Amino acid sequence: MKKSQRLKVIIDLHARQERDALEALGISQQKLQEQQAQLENLQSYRLDYLGKFAVRQQAGINISQLMEFRAFADKLDQAIESQQQTVSNHEREVQRARKRWEDAHQRTKSLQKVSDLALVEEMKVEQKREQAEQDDRAARSGRKDGTGSA
User: Fold this and answer.
1) Which domain holds residue 107?
2) Cα distances (angstroms) measured from residue 38 to each of 26, 75, 86, 99, 135
3) Domain CATH number, residue 119
4) CA dihedral sign of residues 138, 143, 144, 146
5) pLDDT by position in tens, the chain (length 150)
6) pTM, to two decimals
7) Assigned domain for 149 exists
8) Which helix (H) or strand (E) holds 29?
9) What is the DSSP secondary-structure string of 100-147?
């Protein structure tokens, strides 16, 4: 088996790993977008809740309603903080997935260059061999015709 053929098997394996890494990157990016949307929803809900509470507060509320508001607002704040941490974790995962894909892509490209060089070298060797065969045939043909030099 020629070197270029052996390299092709390795390149195909690395190309498959690169595709898998790219797919994993896509999945990570999708999850990040979902988590960011969830964070935006929580933040929007909190703003709406605070706005509605401000209107109700102007109309007058009792202490128990104020305590319930504060307790719920604290829970919303905790949920937002937790979601921000989740988003940060997913952002780091996207960066790791992107790095894995870039590394795999670079390996595949490098191996492809090595394979291309091996193929060029194999073609040169083959051309030299064919040229030598043609020269040999021409020399034998010339001797058979009696036109060979003495």
Assistant:
1) 3-141
2) 19, 15, 10, 26, 76
3) 1.10.287.1700
4) positive
5) 788 788 888 999 999 999 999 999 999 999 999 999 999 999 999 999 999 888 888 888 888 988 999 999 999 999 999 999 999 999 999 999 999 999 999 999 999 998 889 888 989 988 999 898 888 888 888 777 665 554
6) 0.72
7) no
8) helix 3-59
9) HHHHHHHHHHHHHHHHHHHHHHHHHHHHHHHHHHHHHHHHHHHHHTT-
